[in-house]
Amino acid sequence: GQQLNQSPQSMFIQEGEDVSMNCTSSSIFNTWLWYKQEPGEGPVLLIALYKAGELTSNGRLTAQFGITRKDSFLNISASIPSDVGIYFCAGQLPSGTYKYIFGTGTRLKVLA
Amino acid sequence: SAVISQKPSRDICQRGTSLTIQCQVDSQVTMMFWYRQQPGQSLTLIATANQGSEATYESGFVIDKFPISRPNLTFSTLTVSNMSPEDSSIYLCSGGQSDTQYFGPGTRLTVL
Q1: How many CB pairs under 8 A join A and B?
Q2: C-alpha separations of A112 from A80, A107, A109, B44 in Å
Q3: Distance in angstroms (rounded) separating the CA atoms of residues A37 and A86
Q4: Do B106 and A42 touch (CB under 8 A)?
Q5: Which chain A residue's Cα is nearest to B44?
Q6: What pLDDT, on a 0 to 100 scale, did the predictor assign at position B84?
């Protein structure tokens, strides 16, 4: 199936460092969602973005809807060990079907 | 937000048998979807579960193999039919309104 390009694929960082990841596509999206998934669990919604250029925060997380509507970014500040997991972006196609296409995922590991 | 539960949480099945997975949402939602995910990989959309009508399947997925029901706005089932080891995967249900979606914990299926 169709997927979004998400980078980096994986990150190993020290506790306290900031993290940046992004999703890019050749297609335009109406909505961007960012999820975190931990082993054995379903994805948990972190942030939702609805307008081009929108910048939204949720605690230490900040995400932006790219002005071209073809990309989105997620930043995590001052990482902590519990930030470990796989982060997925999801873009909603402007097709009226309300379907989402998921990114390939960024696997984050935090070293204490 | 919506809280989504799935049953069973995991199962081990024999080749050639079928398994039905149930998805229950704690509130009425417009959209419900079914995904498949290999461990550590991204999510692939199987189909959109339409209330009171036939599901809309993505390329590569067919109704005979993955029959879906959605009798109301809070419940859906996915059946994995005539299973083979290649069907071993995590099956995820999601639900939400048109601009967001929440996930269940997933059903981990192993086919021997």
Answers
A1: 58
A2: 8, 16, 10, 33
A3: 5
A4: yes
A5: A1
A6: 97
Distance CA A54, CA A68 (A): 11
Nearest to A42 among B58, B92, B100 (CB): B92
| A36-50: pLDDT as tens digits | 999 999 999 999 999
Q: Which residues of A fall within a CB distance of 8 Å from B106?
A: 41-42
Separation between Cα atoms, residue A44 and residue A62, nearest integer Å: 16
Beta partners for B96?
A: B31
B109's CB contacts (< 8 A; 6+ apart) are B10, B11, B13, B19, B80, B83, B87, B88, B89, B90, B91
Determine the distance in angstroms separating the CA of B68 from the nearest CA of chain A, rounded to an integer: 17
Compute CA distances A45 → A22, A74, B15, B32, B85, whole Å: 16, 13, 35, 15, 31
Task: Look at residue A1 and tell me whether its pLDDT is greater than 60.
Answer: no
DSSP category for residue A103: B
Region of residue A95 (left: phi > 0; alpha: psi -120 to 50; beta: else): alpha
Instruction: Round to whole Å and give the CA distance between B66 and B45.
Output: 12
Q: What is the DSSP letter of B101?
A: -
Cα–Cα distance between B69 and B48 in angstroms, integer? 10
